[in-house]
UniProtKB/TrEMBL annotation:
InterPro entries in alphabetical order: Ald_DH/histidinol_DH, Ald_DH_C, Ald_DH_CS_CYS, Ald_DH_CS_GLU, Ald_DH_N, Aldehyde_DH_dom, BADH
Protein name as it appears in the record: Betaine-aldehyde dehydrogenase
Alphabetized UniProt keyword annotations: Metal-binding, NAD, Oxidation, Oxidoreductase, Potassium
Family: Belongs to the aldehyde dehydrogenase family.
Transmembrane segments: none
One Pfam short name: Aldedh
Active-site residues annotated for this sequence: E253
Record has Membrane as a keyword: no
Annotated GO MF terms: betaine-aldehyde dehydrogenase (NAD+) activity; metal ion binding
EC number of this enzyme: 1.2.1.8
Gene3D superfamilies per record: Aldehyde Dehydrogenase, Chain A, domain 1, Aldehyde Dehydrogenase, Chain A, domain 2
Presence of the UniProt keyword NAD in the record: yes
Length: 491
């Protein structure tokens, strides 16, 4: 029997530090991906509501910027602590709205969001320019906030994405208007409440809910200085085109089809663990996932045997059950898209070694569950090896030598991430150097400590999140020249 049916009251928009109804009274439903049931209705923001959020942000931002980094940092640190205090509640909310297993959400979602707020809380007061003498005087630089920034999120890490975007933006003295993906609207509102409780001034963090139209209203808004999007490549291009009209800065965290390369000297148990993390965590709905697993031909059978044995044990089921490894995919539509890719893989000659079917979990028959799938006998041109599936589908490929595997690994329009498993330290770094990807893991996969810059190359995106580098994306740099002598004008 289901024990977590969790219907809630309508949710509104969060503008100017309080809940506000949508101006035209529209609502949309948010569904529980494990059951297909409606969790609640959510107010849909119109362009008029986006205007109201911009006005609230514009009223509040100058004072927030003037307040100083240490004071801003104190508020962000309080918010981080509140997230930790409410970890259980927030983790359940993420699992309920997004179908993510409850074994994942306390750390990967709530913990990651809290770490990010803490990191930027600490950085906020170290926000300095530089001084340099030059002939005739000196100059100094002033990093300044941009003003009002928009964050637009994907549905796979709703709270984490809201924190990864808002923490550096707010630490640097900006206001943010955040739009969650319409499939996962809940946790950003809870974050807004906790920011409020931590003492964040009204108007500094606003949440507008809705679909692409609401996102476009933000991207096209003349008073918004910057847009940070996490989403698909096509959405990234649309956002960049819209942002071009106002010459807004963009940070784009987009899709991927990342390689994991396992050499013959690798610790195979670790490599298998990493391949599973990089394909089945969050049901495979992770942008950096290592969906192309290249294993040296001499160890491929041994690798496959361990991989199949461990994957066969994964338990698909209720995301709120702590024994569950694999929850439902985000929506019925997305499940169908993943199942279509699995069919296509078979039709094009791939051999499905394991899984790949829809699962009807007892008590959750309408949930969007798909068994983790492992494909073999593939070639690099098959659709499932080239396109981002965003589901629990692992492609096993074999290789003979380093040059060959690097060429194949890099033969993609994406460039988000990659991984290498080897005990040869020189080879490890050589491969890391030569992978055309923004993030490379040596002997691990998908770890994203907040200190480490995160972002892709090529069509996987522009800019970095996390680390001090993120500040650069939420600031503009003013240079001030100071003369120390007379003005020698020739007239
Ligand atoms: P989408 O691109 O469909 O949506 C992302 C967000 O953009 C949503 O909030 C969406 O609104 C909004 N949006 C859609 N169209 C527009 C538009 N024209 N203008 C402004 N906003 C718009 O991505 P998904 O939510 O489906 O997420 C999955 C994708 O995200 C995958 O490709 C994945 O690789 C990528 N991703 C990248 C990450 C990274 O850091 N590199 C991390 C996580 C995911 P709505 O959905 O409400 O209609």
């Amino acid at each position: 029997m289901r024990h977590h049916t969790d219907q809630r009251d309508d949710l509104l928009l969060w503008i100017g530090g309080r809940y506000t109804s949508a101006s035209d009274g529209n609502f949309f439903d948010t569904l529980n991906p494990a059951t297909g049931e409606v969790i609640c209705r959510v107010a849909e923001a119109s362009a008029e509501d986006v205007d109201l959020a911009v006005e609230a942000a514009a009223r509040a931002q100058p004072e927030w910027a003037a307040m100083g980094g240490a004071a801003r940092g104190r508020i962000l640190a309080r918010a981080a602590q509140l997230l930790r205090d409410h970890c259980d509640e927030l983790a359940r909310l993420e699992s309920l709205d997004g179908g993510k297993p409850l074994v994942e959400t306390p750390e990967a979602d709530v913990g990651s969001a809290a770490n990010c707020l803490e990191f930027f809380a600490g950085q906020a007061s170290s926000f300095a320019g530089k001084y340099q003498p030059v002939p005739g005087g000196f100059f100094y630089t002033r990093p300044e906030p941009l003003g009002i920034c928009a964050g637009i999120g994907a549905w796979n890490y709703p709270l984490q994405i809201a924190a990864w975007k808002s923490a550096p933006a707010l630490a640097a003295g900006n206001a943010m208007i955040f739009k969650p993906a319409e499939l996962t609207p809940l946790s950003a509102l809870r974050l807004a409440e906790l920011f409020h409780e931590a003492g964040l001034p009204d108007g500094i963090f606003n949440v507008v809910q809705g679909f692409a139209e609401t996102g476009r209203a933000l991207t096209r808004h003349p008073r918004i200085a910057k847009v940070s999007l996490t989403g698909e490549v096509g959405t990234g291009k649309a956002v960049m085109r819209d942002a071009a009209e106002g010459l807004k800065a963009v940070t784009l965290e987009l899709g991927g089809k990342s390689p994991l390369i396992v050499f013959e000297d690798a610790d195979l148990d670790n490599a298998v663990g990493a391949a599973m993390l990089g394909n089945f965590y969050t049901q495979g709905q992770i942008c950096t996932n290592s969906t192309r697993v290249f294993v040296h031909e001499s160890v491929k059978d041994a690798f496959a045997e361990k991989l199949l044995a461990r994957t066969a044990k994964l338990k698909v089921g209720d995301p709120l059950d702590l024994d569950t490894d694999v929850g439902p995919l985000i929506s019925a539509e997305h499940m169908q898209s993943v199942l279509n890719y699995i069919d296509k893989g078979r039709q094009e000659g791939g051999k499905l070694l394991l899984g790949g079917g829809r699962v009807r979990v007892p008590g959750f028959e309408e949930g969007n569950f798909v068994e983790p799938a492992i494909f073999d006998s593939l070639d690099d041109n098959m659709t499932i090896v080239r396109e981002e599936i965003f589901g629990p589908v692992l492609s096993l490929l074999s290789f003979r030598n380093e040059d060959e595997v690097l060429a194949r690994a890099n033969d993609t329009a994406f460039g988000l991430a990659g991984g290498v498993f080897t005990r040869d330290i020189q080879r490890a770094h050589r491969v890391a150097d030569n992978l055309d990807a923004g993030i490379v893991w040596i002997n691990h996969y998908n770890l994203t400590p907040v200190e480490m810059p995160f972002g892709g190359f090529k069509q996987s995106g522009i800019g970095k999140e996390n680390s001090r580098r993120a500040f650069e994306h939420y600031t503009r740099l003013k240079t001030v020249y100071v003369a120390q002598g007379d003005v020698e004008a020739p007239y």
